[in-house]
Specification:
- This protein has 161 residues and is an alpha+beta fold.
- It folds into 2 domains: 93 residues, Winged helix-like DNA-binding domain superfamily/Winged helix DNA-binding domain (Arc Repressor Mutant, subunit A), CATH 1.10.10.10; 63 residues, 2-Layer Sandwich (Dna Ligase, domain 1), CATH 3.30.1490.190.
- It is 45% helix and 16% strand.
- The protein contains 6 helices and 5 strands.
- Strands 4-3-5 form a 3-stranded mixed beta sheet, with no helix packed on it.
Amino acid sequence: MLKPLKVAQSPVNKFREYLASRAKPQRYTESQRRLVEFIFSAHDHFDADQLCQDLDKAGITISRATVYRTLAKLVDAGMLRQIHLGTRVVYEHEYGYPEHAHLHCSQCGKMIEFQRPELENIVQEICQQHRFAMNSFNLLIHGTCFECNAKRTTQRRLDLV
């Protein structure tokens, strides 16, 4: 698990600032505040449906429409990042977390985060070669995690009996 970075503003204040700075400033609602606090209270990968279920379990009532609209705004504000896993879209914190890459198990869905300074250097070098101004990067490696590989090996042995 990656450790959060120290940031100048809380996610709540950063999102409030984003809404106020838009071409047409938008009001900041209590539901949005509670949602931002909930999302940034723990670092995890989640999809919109899972977030709605987690809110229900926590006894927080926020409409599904507000959840979807706020997620889109958080992505636009650079606070959340979308990761496309086939037909599923998951979100993760971008604000307050260092650049990192992911390993995604196609069997169980587990997401493993990792950091490698060498990888960041290579990405920056490629961008410089192509005169490309990078904002961030997202490397996603699909495969099978250790646990799922171990299960598959055990099942294959049982098939031989």
